[in-house]
Amino acid sequence: MVDKKKIIIPVAVVLIAAVVVVVVLLTKNGNNKNVITGSGTIEATEVDVSPRLSGDILSINYDEGDPVAAGDLLVEIKADELLAQRMGAEAVFINAEANLRRVKSLFNAGGVSRMDYDSADTAYRSAKSHLDYIDAALANSTIYAPINGVVLTRNLEVGEVAFPGSPILTLADLSKVWIKIYVSEPVVGLIKTGGAASIGVDTWPDRTFPGVVTYISDEPEFTPKTVQTKEERTKLVFAVKIELDNPEGLLKPGMPADAEIAVNTKR
User: Fold this and answer.
1) Are 229 and 181 in contact (CB under 8 A)?
2) Are residues 93 and 62 in the same domain?
3) Whether the Cβ atoms of residue 32 and residue 263 lie closer than 8 Å to each other
4) Cβ-based neighbour number of residue 158 at 10 Å
5) Tell me: the pLDDT tens digits for 45-76?
């Protein structure tokens, strides 16, 4: 992932850009090692859970902050019209199936023509296809968690009408997070993919979190406009992504973070 992923159910994967702020410096840390420092924001994979059909929301089984496991039932959508359609489609299918058996028996005995048999078979296949289509639509009235994660936001409530593509819940996978910093051309060559990094956040001032450089941009870009000074915004910089394991879930999306990347200045 180069940027933050956003998955919409039905499955549509999108990466979300996060707010990043940087002034990158080559300095020495407390251990007298050469480091590149920068600041960014903790990001995580976010998944928007939205329905494939329109309808009133019957139930939402999780609130913001609740953990979920892949496969958990998240949401149920009212589908009374589809249920009514299924009753009619099932009756048509049963009649078509019985008629096909009758015509097939007559055809084997020479009592009806091949055209009569083909017509009955076509009617049966059409009725079955329609019933299967309705069953597939009904399956979309229940929405299950696509990932292990935490409910980040609850966008709708029970009784509201849900529409395809409109998120009901947003999940976040906090098991692995990352930050992105931007470095200038003179020092980007010192950074290597797979290089070690350490991350600090204000919430946990006495702790550092180990990370790994997983991506270095191949092309420069202008410093993001979130940087305040005009001089910094006009500089060309390279994006560097640092991933971190987050088994305790202590790092949350949106937390400001400071990064140190150990480098060897001897090229």
Assistant:
1) no
2) no
3) no
4) 11
5) 999 999 999 999 999 999 999 999 999 999 99
